[in-house]
Amino acid sequence: MAEASWYVVHTYSGYENKVKANIDKAIENRHLEDQIFEVRVPMQDVVEIKNGARKSSQKKLFPGYVLINMIMNDDTWFVVRNTRGVTGFVGPGSKPVPLTEAEMKPLGIKVDDIVVDFKEGDTISVIGGVWKDTVGIVQAMNQSKQTVTINVELFGRETPVEISFAEVQKL
Q1: Cβ pair 8, 90 in contact under 8 A
Q2: How far apart are the C-alpha atoms of 29 and 130, rounded to whole Å?
Q3: 77-106: string of b/e by CB count within 10 Å (b at 16+)?
Q4: pLDDT tens column, 117-142
Q5: Residue closest to 37 by CA, chosen among 4, 62, 9, 65
Q6: What does the pLDDT read at residue 60?
């Protein structure tokens, strides 16, 4: 099987989040979860001072660009390239060029995999992030995205939540 790499897609300016949503929907509709793993709009935290008050917000790191972790083949190229708002892949002509490890490092994209000691059905505790101190049973694991899905109680209902391997530990 081919190796997954990170590619850069050029979009209409201001359409980055819409393109991400459209590609995510296309992945779901065409069942390409095993070929297109992650779609990202890189963001950075910015502190602005307006009228003497500090306000922190998030701004797009690269306006007009979206990052995609995928296995490049004719199907995935076609789906991404023909998504509304996408103007093309970054690379010479119509040939996409994957990002190198040196290019990915400043973006905060980790290449190394996290080895976990739990499996589906095990009870885990969340040790970081929004769901810190939550305990749940592993419903699903996604090795390519390095995430685990657990059910948490939200507004009196069981709701599936996807959490990074780095934020959980086995009980």
Answers
A1: yes
A2: 29
A3: bebbeebebbeebeeeeeebebbeeeebee
A4: 888 888 888 887 778 888 888 898 88
A5: 4
A6: 86
DSSP 3-state of 75: helix
Tokens 């708002």 -> residue:
85
Query: CATH 2.30.30.30 occupies which residues in the chain?
Result: 123-170
- The CATH number fitting domain 123-170, selected from 3.40.50.11720, 2.30.30.30, 3.20.20.210, 3.40.50.300: 2.30.30.30
- Look up the CATH superfamily of 5-107: NusG, N-terminal domain (3.30.70.940)
Token pair for 2? 């081919």
Structure tokens at 143: 């090795």
